[in-house]
Amino acid sequence: MKIPQPYLLFLGDVSDPLAAKTARGIHAxxxxxxxGEMSLADCEVSLxxxxxxPEEAAQQGAKTFVLGTANAGGYIPKHWMKAITDAITSGLxxxxxxxxxxxxxxxxxxLAEEHQVSLFDVRxxxxxxxxxxxxxxxxxxxxxxxxxxxxxxxxxSLALEAEMKKLNLDAQFRATGQxxxxxxxxxxxxxxxxxxxxxxxxxxxxxxNKADHWDVIEGQGSLFHPSYAGVSxxxxxxxxxxxxxxxxEMGRPxxxxxxxxxxxxxxxxxxxxxxxARVTNPNAQLAGISVNTSNYPEAEAxxxxxxxxxxxxxxxxxxxxxxxxxxxxxxSKHSITKE
Amino acid sequence: MKIPQPYLLFLGDVSDPLAAKTARGIHAxxxxxxxGEMSLADCEVSLxxxxxxPEEAAQQGAKTFVLGTANAGGYIPKHWMKAITDAITSGLxxxxxxxxxxxxxxxxxxLAEEHQVSLFDVRxxxxxxxxxxxxxxxxxxxxxxxxxxxxxxxxxSLALEAEMKKLNLDAQFRATGQxxxxxxxxxxxxxxxxxxxxxxxxxxxxxxNKADHWDVIEGQGSLFHPSYAGVSxxxxxxxxxxxxxxxxEMGRPxxxxxxxxxxxxxxxxxxxxxxxARVTNPNAQLAGISVNTSNYPEAEAxxxxxxxxxxxxxxxxxxxxxxxxxxxxxxSKHSITKE
Lengths: 339, 339
Fold this sequence. Notes:
The structure is a homodimer. The first copy, chain A, is built from eleven helices and eleven strands. By secondary structure, chain A is α/β, with parallel strands linked by helices. Chain A folds into two domains: 115 residues, Rossmann fold (3-Layer(aba) Sandwich); 194 residues, P-loop containing nucleotide triphosphate hydrolases (Rossmann fold). In chain A, 53% of the residues are buried. The interface between A and B is large, with 39 and 39 residues. Chains A, B: InterPro entries: DgcN-like, DgcN-like_C, DgcN-like_N, P-loop_NTPase.
């Protein structure tokens, strides 16, 4: 299931930098996996990596050609096909986080078979899953949870992994969404599994491990989101986190895309997440609060974070503005260290 | 999407009465939809309906041949194929709740097309779904919830619908599992949808309705079940119930199939269900408790139910032993009546 790395990042012909957020995420968090980038004539976005053809990238050791930009409707445009087929004939695997499946395009399936490479549709692929068992697993786990969608759960997970590694903790990001999977090279998109298997998918993503190992699990959605709470609860139960990091956006007025639905209070959200986590791990506790404060001046942001720290007795920080060192140090203090 | 009724119930060649529980459920709750039964030579189970061939059943108005028994592994045995193909050539649609899809058997697909009939794989079929919106819908809703799987949520829903109809309430059972779907002729198996769409499926199952209409929605799983809680939460949010009926088995020692996981207390389970329901319907309340007391003598059962009634100030009853009239009357008192 693991996507072979390193990658050649394909940027297509996008003009909106936001559309390249998958490629940007891979480059930001795993620069060592990026041999180069490839874009079409009209592309206005660059990661300042070497521009390589698939053949050049393959010669430099690249193993997989990654479709690293989102596209309206999630379709693979016809004028991208030449780049993709060139990549296959150069011996590269193809990985895509788009809705449309590579494996639904017979021409690509046939060509991939001829050249003995694999097509990875990360939004759709998953191992054979079992339903969750709830049986306690070995190793330590921290899960990012949130008051809403798009409050920085993936970013916080990756930044926390990086800070924990700086403290010599054996930390490993565990991906549960397509961008995260392309960054990590493996994982399961939990919002795409059959609903009976959500908790089972979470158990698969974070298996038994050494006592001093940390899985930093990417959370999804929110227990208070009317559209996605089922995914969040199954992921929470299956992850069996020892520690939760609550993610939040300061001042967000209502649940994303649902103007009729006010955003839950941080305190209430922490309470329900801890309560629900204890169904499968009675020792679950809060390790910190990761807040996007970007809409506020620094002094207001700091005052808000100080109030949260005071109230919940854990570090509260902005993962971009102030970094996650404080939460990593909190976890380090509570970590099981190798004998 | 509606499965055409009435049915010819196919019992196959089962010897275990429990294996025929789908056929038995359809006959018990919708006798008017059952033209007859058909079984193979070695079948030891009967519903005491007229034994009919597909051709005879079609002549008597049957529209669909229902595979009404479960089978080890959920596969369609080879020796059932003649009965199924006979049904198709007699002009009957085929409906199945088995894991193996009718539509994965090319011979059946071709024959169905030739005879212009439909194949309904109720465990797999679903309309094009959207994610849940959380927007309040019109009409009244009651949802069965539970402390565990297999505590009588479908039975309670159907029995409550029947009791509410006796009180002249406009009540309608809404199915969320395969047996329920075969009984109702429509619905969505929520545990089989892609996890992003659980709440959206629940919204679809119980659409806007007249102010005095009642949907009685079949619940699934439990918020405290480590395997299935995500399904339960999405269904709870999407259903937007005005009223909950908590289902429970008296004396069950632990969560079904999970001996390491003690069963949640009724009080705790009611609290979390009401709390979570209020995310999408702030007026959600408890309407009653439906308990399977079959492992206890009547006096003990009555004392237990009386204590629950006293504690929660709603009717507590055993749906089989004592009936659900008390809960239906409670709902009737609180019902919006037609102008």
